[in-house]
UniProtKB/TrEMBL annotation:
Gene: tgt
UniProt keyword annotations, A-Z: Glycosyltransferase, Queuosine biosynthesis, Transferase, tRNA processing
Boundaries of every tRNA-guanine(15) transglycosylase-like domain copy: 15-369
Record protein name field: Queuine tRNA-ribosyltransferase
Entry keyword Transferase: yes
Record GO biological process: tRNA queuosine(34) biosynthetic process
Species name: Rhizobium sullae (Rhizobium hedysari)
Length: 376
């Protein structure tokens, strides 16, 4: 641990990077996957379990926590870490994604965004300064700039307008953040699927000399090859000595291919959301536990796993729980999926350390391609 925010790049293997972020609340091993705890809860999981899967950091959402229980209440209760019993690093998304996802409930101008609450219809204004203030009240360790995220495909003129607004907001967020020892503010590269705009966004953000940089506005409707192309255009422009975070991504395959291009941090709701809907990610690819083939299969999802949800519960029982809409089914599959994601990240880090990431990637994809176990 350290009193300051520090990123050490320990090794590279072609484009893949092995590193470590040191902060007062703990160390984040990179490449890292951050489970999503939008409202201060990783859905269907105890945070002790989340930690045991290997997570060094979780994510919270500024917009949702602003609405309830409110940032001011969280601050009065001792901060988000204390409230949710997670004494390790927390990153908070600024609310920029909700600018896109809640487009029918917001008005946007140069000063910020006015949201109509999806909870009770009340109006809330979020400027870049207010976003940073909320994240400070929550006690977030890594705070994200407020940005405007646009869905793809969009018109080039609209993508450029949003990118330029996000750059102006980044400057305002940097001023509002000021100097917070031990904490960090990250900028967010925008520019849609237009390489020239991505490059310009990355170049101008790099000039702000922030603690880290995220790539936003991807995995929002574009094909995977477009996302990867944007990373290939963007990452060489960002400072190599700063961490790089790909927001909202993604599938295990997305993660492998993005690590190969130089991404250090990821977050996604996919492991928990999929688990609640009966879908498991395994070393043999995706398994839909709802399928009738699992109804009398007493084998576990993965007998090699160190996770009880993966190793100790039969497919037949998981199938029954999911088909019966029992909450325990979603809990066990979320636990399994989060553990699988963290096992994948651990394997990635070990492979980079050993200089064999390309082989690890090929072997992992080969296992996925085999598909699930034959019928029992």
């Amino acid at each position: 641990m350290t009193e300051n925010f520090q990123f050490a790049l320990k090794k590279t293997d072609a484009g893949a990077r092995l590193g470590e972020i040191s902060m007062p609340r703990g160390t984040i091993r990179t490449p890292a996957f951050m489970p999503v705890g939008t409202v201060g809860s990783v859905k269907a999981m105890y945070l002790d379990q989340v930690r045991e899967t290997g997570a060094d950091i979780i994510l919270g959402n500024t917009y949702h926590l602003m609405l309830r229980p409110t940032a001011e209440r969280v601050a009065r209760l001792g901060g988000l870490h204390s409230l949710i019993r997670w004494e390790h690093p927390i990153l908070t998304d600024s609310g920029g994604f909700q600018v896109m996802s809640l487009s029918a409930l917001r008005k946007l101008n140069e000063q910020g965004v006015t949201f109509k609450s999806h909870v009770d219809g009340s109006l809330h204004h979020m400027s870049p300064e207010r976003s940073i203030e909320i994240q400070g009240l929550l006690g977030s360790d890594i705070q994200m700039q407020l940005d405007e995220c646009v869905a793809l495909p969009s018109e080039p003129r609209e993508i450029e307008r949003a990118m330029e607004l996000s750059l102006r907001w980044a400057e305002r967020c940097k001023v509002a953040f000021g100097n917070q020892p031990g904490k960090a503010m990250f900028g967010i590269v925008q520019g849609g699927d237009i390489p020239a705009l991505r490059i310009r966004s990355a170049e101008e953000l790099a000039q702000l000399d922030l603690k880290g940089y995220a790539v936003g506005g991807l995995a929002v409707g574009e094909p995977q090859d477009v996302m990867l192309k944007m990373l290939e255009e963007t990452l060489p422009v960002l400072p190599s000595e700063k961490p790089r975070y790909l927001m909202g991504v993604g599938t295990p395959d997305d993660i492998l291919k993005s690590v190969a291009r130089g991404i250090d941090m990821f977050d996604c709701v996919m492991p928990t959301r999929s688990g609640r809907h009966g879908l498991a990610f395994t070393r043999r690819g995706k398994v839909n536990i709802r399928n009738a083939r699992h109804a009398e299969d007493m084998r576990p999802l993965d007998d090699q796993s160190n996770c009880p949800a993966s190793r100790d519960y039969s497919r037949a029982y998981l199938h029954h729980l999911v088909r019966a809409n029992e909450a325990l089914g979603g809990m066990l599959l979320s636990w399994h999926n989060l553990n699988y994601y963290q096992e994948l990240m651990q394997g990635i880090r070990a492979a980079i350390s050993e200089g064999r990431f390309a082989d690890f990637m090929a072997e992992t994809q080969e296992e996925w391609a085999k598909g699930d176990l034959e019928r029992a």
